Q: What sequence folds into this?
């Protein structure tokens, strides 16, 4: 089934893997979605559990002039807007780099994650994967090692996945235009919506090293700036660390 730039698949290994394999045949700006993924990919080599009821989507970006960092930001902000339209009473925010979370009593509940992967064959471009817990039940989230939520858990309602996908795509397309025409505006909104800035965080590096400090800013490069307790500023990039807010 296809609607308004959205290509619906049944079960698949991973929508990102599919979009990379089919990159040449897919048009710029389409969103590929699947019912379930058998090998959903998360950031930093993790798995993304993908039971029925969630939205598993990949946005195809073939335009030059938009960096992967900005494309990730456009997807994060587009996801946030899609959620705001359906659950306006929840406090939604972006947790650097591009997790989308509900914030309650100082705790962040992750609802969506974003994985940008570059495609170097078949012309330059990248794919932006979005995993969004839509009709996902509490039971389906039991295996997660961080607090998580879904649109169903936030509102008690069930949502038509194709309608959510169509609106998500439109929102991402709009933010992509902003990224192209005025990247500083996208960057400003990305920072404004970020729930980590001003908060104490612990950054864990791949090699086991960890640092604690206050997240103070996000650089144009996409790096997060953390002021350590001794005043030193640490710049971390999203591929290198996992972050725990306090
Ligand atoms: C994260 O680790 O937070 C990012 C998760 C991204 C998951 C989405 S689901 C659709 C797309 N296909 C994948 O295999 N991964 C992304």
A:
């Amino acid at each position: 089934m296809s609607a308004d730039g959205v290509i619906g698949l049944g079960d698949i290994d991973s929508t990102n893997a599919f979009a990379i394999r089919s990159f040449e045949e897919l048009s710029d700006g389409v969103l590929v979605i699947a019912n379930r993924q058998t090998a959903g990919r998360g950031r930093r080599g993790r798995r993304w559990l993908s039971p029925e009821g969630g939205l598993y989507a990949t946005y195809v970006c073939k335009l030059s002039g938009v960096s992967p960092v900005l494309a990730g930001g456009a997807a994060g902000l587009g996801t946030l807007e899609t959620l705001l339209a359906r659950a306006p009473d929840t406090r939604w925010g972006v947790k650097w780099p591009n997790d989308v979370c509900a914030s309650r009593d100082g705790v962040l509940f992750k609802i969506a994650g974003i994985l940008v992967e570059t495609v170097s064959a078949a012309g330059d471009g990248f794919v932006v994967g979005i995993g969004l817990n839509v009709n996902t039940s509490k039971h389906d989230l039991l295996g997660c090692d961080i607090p998580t939520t879904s649109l169903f858990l936030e509102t008690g309602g069930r949502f038509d996945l194709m309608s959510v996908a169509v609106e998500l795509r439109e929102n991402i397309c709009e933010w992509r235009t902003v990224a192209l025409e005025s990247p500083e505006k996208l960057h400003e909104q990305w920072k404004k919506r970020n729930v980590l800035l001003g908060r104490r965080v612990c950054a864990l590096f791949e090699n086991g090293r960890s640092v604690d400090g206050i997240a103070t800013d996000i650089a144009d490069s996409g790096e997060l700036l953390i002021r350590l307790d001794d005043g030193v500023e640490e710049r971390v990039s999203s591929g290198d660390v996992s972050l725990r807010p306090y």
